[in-house]
Design goal:
There is one protein chain. This protein has 382 residues and is mainly alpha-helical. It is 72% helix and 0% strand. It is built from 19 helices and no strands. It is elongated, with a radius of gyration of 33 Å.
Amino acid sequence: MADRSLRTDSAKSERLYKQIIDTPVHDNDVIFTLLLRQCTANLNLKHFAKAKEIVDTASRQFPRLAASSSKLHCLRGGACLGLENYSQAFYETEMAIQLAPENYQAQFWHATSLFYLNEFAKSLQSLEIVIRNVKKHIASRMLAIECKRKCGLWKDIINDSLRMLNFQSLNGNIKSSIHCALAEGFMHVGELKKAECAASTAIAHNKSNRLAFQIRGEARYNLNQFKSSCADFHSFQTLSIEKRGGGKINSAAFTKWRTGGKQQRDQIHHGIHDTHFKLVVLPIQLHAIPLSLFASVVAPFGGFFASGIKRAYGIKDFDSIIPGHGGVMDRMDCQFLRSLCTWVHYNAFIQMIGVSVPKLLFLFKALPQSAQEEFLRKVKEI
């Protein structure tokens, strides 16, 4: 309802500005300002081609005013974003920022163009400027979450989402988007129960949030709640089919930035799990396999070796400290060989190799350039 009202007001404004512009006026500043406002109205109506045409007309008719107008470059950048001309949008918003660094709308569109150009780190830098100066700029914070998702900064996503939930006057779709981002962050750090709760809250705010159903299904699957997981995956597939068939779905704002192609996890014919069985092998289980084989096959020979020593010396037991069993050595003969095997396995495969600063620097210099950049990024995350 609010969106329809905004579109109606924008349409009225656009017609009013056109009537005023067509009226003969000798004040160039007034006409130039009205052209920019007409362009803004068209951007609100998502008439991006018309908005671009108007701002180009303003540039041709008033080159002196256009050269020093940050707003003109900003609006042209917004129109180019709508037309998916991201390189031109980046250039125009860059010009707008140079003319007026406090133009935070230009900063936001600049960050958006960088995001679509896959420059996620640079996009975050521009978004931080907007967030620092406009505390409740929700669109910037949502785009920052998406940039961090691309970079795998899940802990930062959790912190940002929790901070945004303290804001007042958030509508249902935005709350659903924030809880969905929070659930995805919890999933990636292994907090499955928290991820399930956050995804459930997201669904409560927006029952058309496909990503929330997907995350909750994944969390419940890993929590062995298979019946509930199947229901969530079914809901996810149903929403996917509706969208594919042209049905109207109020998709969450968190997913509106994903326009660069379908994500693999959102494809209808390939769900999160292609099979009904998932085998999870922990590292301790891998280490237990050779140790148990050694205990079953080789360790008994420790008893045979001890028996040979006793026969060589003509004795029945090593000692009589344990009545009816002999000495400690008689009870632990297999364990001595077993402990030797465990010690060798631990030092060879489990114990962390000692490192030092010079050794780390040597290994770092031996890495290729791309691996060095990835290593530095991981260190910053720690």
